[in-house]
Amino acid sequence: MEQILDVFGINWKLLVVQMINFGLLLLVLYIFLYKPVLAMVDVRRKKIERAIQDAEEADRQLGEAEAEKARIIREATMKGDDIIDSAKKHAETSEITIMKDAHRKAVHLLNEAERRTAREREEMIQKAEREVARMAVLSAEKILRQGALKK
Amino acid sequence: MAEKSIHISLSAEQIGTLWGIPITNTMLMSFVVFFLLVVLTFFVRRKLALIPGRLQTLVETLFVGILDYITETLGNEKLARQLFPLILTIFLFIFTANIIEFTPGIGSIGWTNAHGEFIPLLRSMNTDLNTTLALTVIVFIVIEVAGVATLGFLRYGKKFVNLSSALGFLVGIIELFSEVARLVSFSVRLFGNIFAGEVMILVIQHFVPIVLPVPIMLFEVFVGFIQAAIFALLTLFFVKIAITEVH
Q1: pLDDT tens, A85-107?
Q2: Cβ contact, residue pair B85, A26, below 8 Å
Q3: Of A14, A34, A43, the CB nearest to B88
Q4: Residue A31, H or E segment
């Protein structure tokens, strides 16, 4: 055994030095290489995960917004239709009222005109009668005056 | 020239002593690997941003891929996160050491000592059983700790000391042996592969110094990658076995 160790140059001091050397290398690489690199990978992975989640969230919100938009447009269209309908109905009723009013007014005006015409005609007749009477009186007077002169 | 034989030493050459600790050329090499990885860390770290550059994308893809694989294998995300640094460091440490083993200067720059032996300043890290054994001891401890921490001491111990039946007891003993045998198999597998590659290159260089060593070196780099991956993957699989309850 001793001989074998001697041939291979095995020396516990060398073994310990090599173990310390490797241990130190492990420590240095762990602190300055593995840890920061893996931490960087983890940070990036988290960031990408969050970015994907954000994108999904944005997509979802976009979808909701689209649905909301469609709903609002539909409601607005329906409301608009209602307003137009009611306006039409309102217009129809007021048209009828206006027509009735106009008709009534027209009838009233017509009656008025007829009444006035009748009154005027009567007045004319009365006037004419008065004129005729006056003329008759005048002509009688004339005749009487001529008669008197002749005498 | 032809008389000069190839000098092959199983053990790493000592190049000095510091505070009573022998300094070997493979130890120096492991410091070089350490330094290279720290430089790489510095470059990755400097440009770390939420919007990644090319290098960061590459590093992140590798890290996340490896972490996902570990998580999938263990079926336990917390444990996977805890084990990930160890497994990746094992891979990076061994792999970096293996791909730079043919860098000109490594193994060729050195001096001749008083006994007339050539002492290279740097020597491929995993051609020293001390390095591979040190890694193996760490892995062994981690495997046992993971097993005990996940299953609890008694349930984990049941794998090795099973008194319910004679057969169970025997299986437990075999398990115990294979557990300890890992110390040898892990370290010698890596050491043997890399050392054999080095020796093969040396021999080929000795006979055909140009052209022929190139494809062999290429192959050895591939072996270096495979061995690094095997060491890391076996660690993962043995942890998986350790945290799986015995039926």
Answers
A1: 999 999 999 999 999 999 999 99
A2: yes
A3: A34
A4: none
